[in-house]
Amino acid sequence: MKRNNWRLIAMLAALFTVLAACGGTTEETDAPATTAGSTATTAAGTATTAGPEGYCTNSTGTLVWAHEQEPPDMHLDDPNNNLTTTAWARQALWDGLHGISSATVYFPELLAEDAVVTENGDGTVTASFKLRDGLVWSDGDDLTADDVKFTFDVIMATTADGDDEDTDPDFVYLIGDRTGYDTITDFSVTSPTEFSITWSEFFAGWKATFAEIFPSHVFSADAATAAAEMNDQLREFKLPNGDPIPSSGPMVFSSWERGIQMNLVRNDNYNGNVSPDAQNRGVACVEGVTIRYVTDTDAQINALKANEAQIIMTQPQLAFGDELATDPNFTVAASAGPVFEHWGLNVFNVHLSDPLVREAVALAMDKAQVMESLYTPLFGDLLPGEGLGNTYWLSNQPQYENHSGDAGYGLGDAAAASAKLEEAGYTKNADGIYEHPDKGVLSLRVGTTGGNALRELQQQIIQAQMKAAGIDIVIDNVPGGAYFGERPFSEAALECAGSGGTAGDCTVWDITQFAWVGGPWPGGQSASYRSSSGNNPYGFASEAFDARATECDATIDDAERDACYNELDTYVTTLGPDGNGLVMLPLTQKPSFFGYSNASLAKGAVAPDANSAGPLVNVVDYMFSG
Amino acid sequence: MLIYAVRRIIATIPLVLAATSIVFVLTSLGGDPVTAKLATCTTCDASAYQRLIDLYELDKPIYPQRYLSWLTDAVSGDLGVSLTQGERPVKDILIERGKNTFMIAIPAFLLIAAGAVAFGVYSAVRQYSISDYVITGASFIGISMPTFFFGLLLQFFVVYWLQKTGQKFFYTSGIHIDTFTEYIKSASLPIMTLILVSLAGESRFQRAATLEVINSDYIRTARAKGLPERTVIFKHALRNALIPLVTVWALDFAALLSGAVVTETIFAWPGLGRELISATFAQDLDLMMGVTVVAIFLTVSFNLIADLLYGVLDPRIRFD
C-alpha cells in the first residue's frame, strides 16, 4: 500500500512537471512575438522600407504595451467613455491640425505652417490654414482640406429636419463639447491644401480644435448621416465591411480581443511625425503595437521583466521606481505630467467662509513635505520641490508663476496659521485643536475618490500638518467615482454653490481633493470658477473674475492672453484683488512616466505626456534590438 | 431521485429571486453610472446621458419597478448590454468569459479533487508520520497564504528563472490559446494559484473525514476479515470519507466556475471574475447582474448535484 500511495503522489507531481515541460521555451523567441489575432508578422517578418535613412535599422517586431485599463469602446465622446486610455490609443491612429509637444506647446502637425489669424474689424476673426503637401490616409486616399471641412460638418451636424440632440432623442452629437466649433460662421476650402475658418468672435482655444481629422471618403457625404455612422462605427473602429477606419497616424487599427488586447499595425503610408520630440520622421520601426490589458500593477512590472511586454505606463509609485529605475535592463522615462492635484474649499462651510481660516489652511500646508514623500526621491528636480502654485499654468510651462508660494502658502508655517485663526476669533483647546465660540471646533472633512492610494497618502500627510497648526482634518472619502456625485457635485451641493449658499445643502462637503488636467490652453479652467457656471462647486463668485475671464478668452495676442490667465489664477489661489478668493490650493503636479525594456528595445521614445498623450504619441521611435 | 431533484429545483426559485433582488438593490444603491460620469466630465452635454437614463430606467424606483423590468428581460433571455464593452449583449460576454474561466477552473478543480483525496487519505493513513507532518505543514502554509501574494510569487519565480537561465516556461499574465502548448504556458500559473488555496483546505477536510471513518467499527470488521489494506481503504473507507468533501467540492467548483476574482486579475485572465471586478468599478449594472446570475445558478446547481451524489456514495441515504 505504501508504494501505491507514493505512486499517486508521484503521478500528481509528474503532472505538474509535464505542465511545466510543455511550456518551456527560450526567452529570445518571446520579445517580438506576434500576439493572438494580430495581423502583424513575427520577429522574422518582412523588412520594410520604413523610416528615414539611418533610424530604423530594424523594422520588425510588435511592441507590447501592458496597460491596466481597457476602454469600453473607441468612441471618445460616447457617454460611456471619456477615458484617457481611449485617447492614448487614438493618438496613434489620427493626427490633427496641431499636436502638443512635451513642452506643452502646440506645433503644426498636419499643417505645413502656423495659421495666420486676422481680425476682420467686425468682431469676427479668420484663420487661414495650409496643410502639408502630399498627405494621405492609410488606405492611400489623399488627405485634403475637404477632410477638415468634413470633420467640422460632422461635428456640427444636425438631422435633415434641423433637429439636434436636444430636440431629437435619437440624434447624438459626434462630440460632446463643441466649444470653438459652434462659433464658426464660415469654413471655406480654397484648394486641396488650403482653407480658412471664421469665428464670430475670437476663441482663445482655437488651436485645441480639430485635434483629429476624420476621413471623409469612407463615410456618407451627408453630414448628419455621416455623424450617425461615425457614432456607431467609431466604437469598434471598423467600417461596416469589417475594414478598419483609415488612419492618418503612425498606426492602423487592426483587431480587438475584448478583455485581452487591442492590436494596431504599422501605417506604411504614414505622413511622418513632425513633433519636436520625435527622432524618427518616417513610418514606425515596429510592425505594430499590442495593448495588452493587465489590471494589476505588480503583474505589469512582472510582464515587463518577463519580456512579455516592452512598455508599461502606470500610476507614479515608489514600488515602480524601486523595481525598475535601478535596473539597467529598463528605462524609466519621466516627464512633468499635465495632471495636478488640488484641494478645493467650500466657501459656504461655516469655518471656511472666513478668508482668515482659508488662509490658515493654506499656510499650514507643507507641500514640500508631500513632494518629498511622494515624488522627489524618484523624480529629483523634474517637478518643483515646493509643489505646485498655480492652477492655470503648470510648472513645466514657460508661463508658470508660483502665486500660492509667493503668497507664503503651502510652506508649512504652523505659527502663521495659528495667528490667522486667533485673529479670526478661535482659541486653542487642550487637545491642541482650535475652537470658535460660535462656529465650534475647527474640524473639516476632506474627501476624494477612495481607493486611490497615492491620494490617500497625500491626505494623511496633510492631515498631520494641519493638526500641528490646530486644525482637525477628518478624511471622508467615498469609493470610486461615486464620490463626486455624492459630495462636491451632488445636486444639493451644486444648488448651494449656485445660490450663494441660500438653497441646497452647504454641509455636504468641506474640502475636496481631486485631479485636473492642464494644457497649452488653460482657459477652460475658468468654467470651474465662474459664478454662472454649473461646474463651480466651490461657491466662489466674483464679478471681477467673471469679467476678466471673458476678457482673457477674447485676447488674441498669445503673450497678453497668457499673462491674463496668470492674473485669473491669483483670484483663486490667493485672496485676490477683491480679498474674497483662496478657494483653490494647488498641491502637486503628477509626474507621468513609463518604463520600457532596454533588453528588447534598441530605441525608446521620449517621455511624451505633456498633455496626457500617452506612450504612443511618439511610437515611431520605438525599435527592437537585433 | 427525480422527484427529489424537481422538488429541489422548484425550491430554488424563491432563493434565486431573493438573491437577485438583494444584489440588484445593493448594486443600484451603490451609485448610478450617469451621476458618476456627469461629475467627472465637466464639459459633457448632459442631454447625451438621457440614453443611459432610458437604458437603465434610472428615473424609476429601484424596487420593484427596475428590478422587475430587469427580471422580465432576464427570464426571456435578455440580460441587457454592457456599457463598458461597447454595448455588447451581456449574454455574449458571459459565454465568452465563461469559456475562459472554464479553461482554468476545470483543470484546477480536477487537480484539487485528486490532490485533496490523495494527500488527505495518505495523511490520515500515515497519521503522525513525518510525511503527515509535512503535508499538514504545507496545508497550513497554503491556507494562510493570500491568493494575490502567491500569484505574484509565482510570477516572480518565472522572472527570476528567466533572468537566471534565459529560460521561460510560463507566461506571467494574459491568455494565449493559439496552441495547446501556449495554453499550458499561460494557464499554468493561474491554475497553480487556484489549486493552492483549495487543495490545502480540502486535503485537511479529507484527512479528518478519513480518520473518522478508518477508526469506525465496520472498517475494523473489514480488517478482521483479512481484507487487504488497500481494499479496506479504497473500497470501504473512501466512499464514506468522501461525503463531507463532496459538499466542499460542490461549493468550490461553483466558485471556481463563477470566476476567481483575484487570480484572474493578477494573471490578466479574461474570465468571469475579472469581468465582475471591472463591471463593479465601472458601475456596469447589467454585466454585474449577469455574472451574479451565473454564480447563483452554478452554486444552486452544484449543491443539488452534491445532494444527489450523497445517495450514490452512501446507499443508506434516501431522497424521499
Describe this structure in words.
The complex is a heterodimer of chains A (626) and B (320). Chain A has 16 helices and 24 strands. With 626 residues, chain A is α+β, with helices and mostly antiparallel strands. In chain A, a hairpin with a 5-residue loop joins strand 3 and strand 4. In chain A, helix 3 packs across helix 4, helix 7 runs antiparallel to helix 11 and helix 8 runs antiparallel to helix 12. The longest helix of chain A is centred in the N-terminal third of the chain and has 21 residues. With 320 residues, chain B is mainly alpha-helical. The longest helix of chain B is centred in the middle third of the chain and has 36 residues. In chain B, strands 1-2 form a two-stranded antiparallel sheet. Chain B has 13 helices and three strands, in the order ααααββαααβαααααα. Classes of the chains: A alpha+beta (626), B mainly alpha (320).
Element layout with pairings:
The complex is a heterodimer of chains A (626) and B (320).
Chain A: H1 2-22, E1 25-26, E2 62-67, H2 84-91, E3 98-100, E4 106-108, E5 116-119, E6 125-130, H3 145-155, E7 184-191, E8 194-199, H4 223-233, E9 251-257, E10 261-266, E11 288-293, H5 297-305, E12 311-313, H6 318-325, E13 330-345, H7 355-364, H8 367-374, H9 376-379, H10 403-406, H11 414-423, E14 427-428, E15 434-436, E16 440-441, E17 443-447, E18 449-450, H12 453-468, E19 472-475, E20 478-479, H13 482-486, H14 491-498, E21 511-517, H15 543-553, H16 558-573, E22 584-597, E23 601-603, E24 623-624
Parallel strand pairs in A: 2-11, 2-12, 17-19, 17-21, 18-20
Antiparallel strand pairs in A: 3-4, 5-6, 6-8, 7-8, 9-10, 10-11, 12-22, 13-21, 13-22, 14-15, 15-16, 23-24
Chain B: H1 2-29, H2 33-40, H3 50-56, H4 62-75, E1 81-82, E2 88-89, H5 90-125, H6 130-144, H7 147-165, E3 167-168, H8 180-214, H9 217-224, H10 229-257, H11 261-266, H12 272-281, H13 285-313
Antiparallel strand pairs in B: 1-2
Helix pairs in contact in B: 1-13, 5-6, 5-8, 5-10, 5-13, 6-8, 7-8, 8-10, 10-13, 12-13
